Amino acid sequence: MAVAIVTGSGGLVGAEAARFLAHKGFEVVGIDNDLRDRFFGEAASTRPMSAALQREIPSYHHVEADIRDADALDRLFSRYGRRIELVIHAAAQPSHDWAASAPAVDFAVNATGTLNLLETTRRHSQTAVFAFCSSNKVYGDTPNRLPLQERETRWEIAEAHPFAEHGIDESMSMDQSLHSLFGVSKCSADLLVQEYGGYFGMRTACFRCGCITGPGHAGAEQHGFLAYLVKCAVTGQPYTILGYGGKQVRDNIHSADLVSAFWHFFMRPGVAEVYNMGGGRFSCCSVIEAIGMIEAQSGRPMRTSYQPANRPGDHIWWISDVRRFANHYPQWRLTRTTEAIIGEIHAHLTADRGGFRCAER
């Protein structure tokens, strides 16, 4: 049986990938040591999801390992060797804010951890396809220099600009911008994935994602914008809007649509590919537009406050142009709008006796 390695298997993307690949007939080896609990607290722990995967999927094997531990990875990969056909690297320190509190930890997890995985894959299973969850933060705050215009509920780009119709493509520069420390660590990892593809001929791809979301997301204040917003609506917690009048725009991609993209790449892989990946114009919203959608679905107002200071380097407007990937893989489709995703998250959080439950499904 072919083996797929999934890092961050207890998280949103990792768990989605583990279930999908098990259904496709893979033996799935999930690597997760619940650093999310350390990053964001018990409410964001991946242990409930990891336990659910072990209960539900006979072909799933959980490994409590840290991707910063090169020796542990070497032992694991040597056990499976060339049976490993796919590596989905979704483990990360994912928060812009948290990175500033512990830069060395952030860099070690995001950059050094990725280097360890690439080198271990090269030594033991070089022909495996390597799909990496990168980030649009690799572009830093360059998007904020676009000709943006403030409108009633969102910031928008000038209609005459080349990015207006479809969003930001891969031609945007990564240089001379304020990235945030998280952006720097993800940028380093992104370049490593490209280099191992181009230099060693490995079949790698960087998926530079905007907001990845879905009902499996244990959203926390520092990470998981849409899921955390819905959680606040369900529990009555106050939500603080940070800067830009709440009109900053994000595109939102459901974790199932992202995993589908990984699968399409696996079936016909390239070398050192780079793709902007998100909801595009099909699924995007501003913060205050998202609040309006959530209030409409929940039937009650949210408790919100506003702080005029934005996070350093935060994007005012981000919409991914996914045409490069769609042109390479024309059978792939985005399937959920932001409103539909909010509905899924809300239904999930209120499923048990009308109350909030942890992100296990």
Break the fold down into its secondary structure elements and pairings.
Layout: E1 3-7, H1 12-23, E2 27-31, H2 35-40, H3 47-56, E3 60-63, H4 70-80, E4 84-89, H5 96-101, H6 103-124, E5 129-135, E6 148-150, E7 155-157, H7 181-200, E8 203-209, E9 211-213, H8 225-235, E10 239-242, E11 249-254, H9 255-267, E12 273-277, E13 284-286, H10 287-298, E14 304-307, H11 323-328, H12 338-349
Parallel strand pairs: 1-2, 1-4, 2-3, 4-5, 5-8, 8-12, 9-11, 10-14
Antiparallel strand pairs: 6-7, 11-13
Helix pairs in contact: 1-9, 4-6, 6-7, 8-10, 8-12, 10-12
Written overview of the protein:
The protein has helices at residues 12-23, 35-40, 47-56, 70-80, 96-101, 103-124, 181-200, 225-235, 255-267, 287-298, 323-328, 338-349, and strands at residues 3-7, 27-31, 60-63, 84-89, 129-135, 148-150, 155-157, 203-209, 211-213, 239-242, 249-254, 273-277, 284-286, 304-307. With 361 residues, it is α/β, with parallel strands linked by helices.
Profile the largest sheet.
7 strands, parallel
**What's the helix-strand series?**
EHEHHEHEHHEEEHEEHEEHEEHEHH
Number of strands: 14
Instruction: Provide the structure class.
Output: alpha/beta
Percent of residues in helices: 25-40%
Q: Detail the poorly predicted runs.
A: 352-361
Enumerate how many helices there are, as a single number. 12
Roughly how many Å is the radius of gyration? 19 Å
Biggest sheet, spatial arrangement of strands:
3-2-1-4-5-8-12
Mean pLDDT score: 94
C-alpha termini separation: 26 Å
The backbone outline, from C-alpha atoms, is globular
